[in-house]
Amino acid sequence: KAGVTQTPRYLIKTRGQQVTLSCSPISGHRSVSWYQQTPGQGLQFLFEYFSETQRNKGNFPGRFSGRQFSNSRSEMNVSTLELGDSALYLCASSHADRASPLHFGNGTRLTVT
Amino acid sequence: AQSVSQHNHHVILSEAASLELGCNYSYGGTVNLFWYVQYPGQHLQLLLKYFSGDPLVKGIKGFEAEFIKSKFSFNLRKPSVQWSDTAEYFCAVNRISNFGNEKLTFGTGTRLTIIP
Asked: CB-hemisphere CA count at 13 Å for B98?
């Protein structure tokens, strides 16, 4: 069974640009969550999607948005990039029940210059 | 706001030493508890989980954790560590509310370095 796939693995952008990250969940998983990982901050929850609907949202500005498609694939978009957005962005999928463990992808390393 | 605290940011041990990593959470009620591990260059993966029942849970690779409700703690233990346990360890908690399980909140992680 294929794991969670995130593309691209690495991105370098400049301030003010926008970026779109992609996540393909494990087959059969309908919930997709996004996290931002930075040294010292750990994993900060961005949002969770289930059946194309945002089920929960973290405390990030509106520049961060996401969506989920009918095949459960998800995209995350960050507009007007800032230097502080440099981080590892992780996607995780799980079954519908939130008691199910998350399965993480390898992440997308975003560097903003 | 709910929070998860991991007070040990970096732990350095010699092989065969015993390990205990602390995890405390800030909210009451019924919770699900998890420990995830991130080995160098690899993705995060589940080490063990507690939903209900026996508060002492066993996970992969000889790890175990004990849920102590009165202390809001879920500490991770291993009696004898190996060099291959070098990794970053994350505690995570989600609360079970009347509306279902809430989002998973992670601690800031503990970096474990094992010296051969």
From this structure: 0
Contact (CB, 8 A) for B73 and B9: no
Q: What is the largest CA-CA distance in chain B?
A: 48
Q: Does the pLDDT at position A6 exceed 80? A: yes
Prior bond to B40 cis, omega within 30? no
Give B-chain residues touching A10 at CB under 8 angstroms.
Answer: none
Question: What's the CA gap between B79 and A44, in Å, rounded?
Answer: 31
Portion of chain A with pLDDT greater than 70, in percent = 96
Over the stretch B6-35, which tens digit does the pLDDT of each residue have? 989 999 999 999 999 999 999 778 889 999
Cβ separation A104–B45 shorter than 8 A: yes
Nearest one of A111, A108, A102, A110 to A23, comparing CA atoms? A108
